[in-house]
Amino acid sequence: MVKVRFAPSPTGYLHIGGARTALFNWLYAKAQGGIFVLRIEDTDRERSRDIYLEEILQSMTWLGLQWDELYKQSDRFDIYREQARKLVQEGKAYEEGPAVILTMPQQEIKLFDLIRGEIVFDAALMKDEVLLKSDGSPTYSFACVVDDALMGITHVIRGDDHISNTPKQLVMYQALGLKPPKFAHLPLIMGEDGGRLSKRTGAVAVTDYKRQGFLPEALVNYLLLLGWSPGNNQEKIGLDAAVKKFSIKQVQKSPAIFSLEKLTWLNAQYIKQSAPEKITDLLIPFLEEKGYLGEKYDRKKLETSVELYQSRMPTLCDFLARADFLFKDPVSFEEEALSRLKESRQDGNIAALAGRLAALSEFSVETVERAFREVVADIGIPASDLVHPVRILLTGKTVGPGLFETMALIGREKTVQRLTQKVHI
RNA sequence: GACCCCAUCGUCUAGCCUGGUUAGGACACAAGCUUUUCAAGCUUGCAGCGCGGGUUCAAAUCCCGCUGGGGUCGCCA
Question: Rounded to two decimals, what is the model's pTM?
């Protein structure tokens, strides 16, 4: 039975690289019908924080990566000490004060990596490895090996940056007389500048992407595309479909640069192709935080608004800025909109339109459009001459969805009110 | 610096294992169509096998070297 683990340390938020490692582990487990272990590596008691632990669990859940088993290394210190003591007794490690240090053998270490093939190291070049620190806590490497072995981990899938750790850990398995798991080292994700992914090059925490209005499906899909391809020129793929196609051997060997642009495009695809009800649900917390939703609001109307903007909101947050006029009164005008309005000189015609709209017995997309067309026909000007200034008056913007849909959404009262408002240019 | 990994359009990638493709797709960019604007959508275009040697009738694909990029070198994880 395949058993894999994702082993974050709660010394910071779950970041994008960690999320991808978790994702590939999860995928492999699901694809093989195995078990996905989440192991919290909190041996550094100084830097570990409960809030980070909570945040990591939340991010994993948000991404849809449910774990089957959960462990904390801080609960297992006795086990590491026991194993270290055994190695000292057998003469494979030595004590230096309270610390325990493993003797490196003079030999060649061969690692067979599932992604890269055989890699050979010379243990003679490696320094003796600390197993237990002076304070009695285990080092990362040692705790990791003991846990992987004792928990029955069959495959260690982790970042490339651990490749040089592997020979030392292989020596530990050898010393402990335990069978090492199979290893697969994933290429790292790089920032847009080609260097290490860092806060400077953009958001790194999964939570940041959530806050910025990305859908978990889009983020997971994008992460999947970094280093793996479903084939058949397919790009949009859900977790379930990916499980069916996933193979660790197909994973790319070279590092990939994280592209916010492509992630945003994928996010737009997911938003556009989702049901309006779903996007509305996701939007509600954002709208509430912004104070855009009152005590009671018209859910149906909100869904209609969302539907109108689904192809116009690459991220959920874009809705907040682009459709703010639906929630704010009076509207706030963009600078560009104001100067265009000034140039249009349609005040008289707009007043005529307002009067016409006010007299409408029914205020719907159809009746509004008919009235509007009649007004411009009477005056004898092209529709667009009036469309643009009207949109600006109603929304404060030069761009937006179809004008008649927008008017119907705003409603008769506010539409007329905004058309007759005094705008100081 | 030592050790290790990697190398297809600007970016993500298919193709590489099992040599023979007009080197395919996507993002971005450009143009056009559509249109009341902006998006979306559709069409088209631009753009790539890092370099040098081999092996072979034939190399993106196999081998070697170089160059370039990345990673590791903590009683951090």
Answer: 0.95
